[in-house]
Amino acid sequence: MAFMAATDHSNQLRTAGLQALEDIIKKFASVPEPEFPGHVILEQYQANVGAALRPAFSPDTPSDITAKACQVTVLIGSPQIHLLTSQLRHAR
Q: Which superkingdom, per the lineage (predicted)?
């Protein structure tokens, strides 16, 4: 749901979606993946996270939405979920 909201046409919904995404990442950043030791559960959503953030960095996006997406991107760069950054690198 957060992924869909973050890419909606409504700026209010996009902001709320990015906030929800930030909250989810904070809560689940260090939750281990039970089926794959040494991995975190959020790794399976890396494509979704990248797809939800990509539109926030387009030139026509309002600055407050881009700023919120930057906050989420900083979380992705944290050591707990470093593997999600590979998806963002490919988005460029």
A: Eukaryota
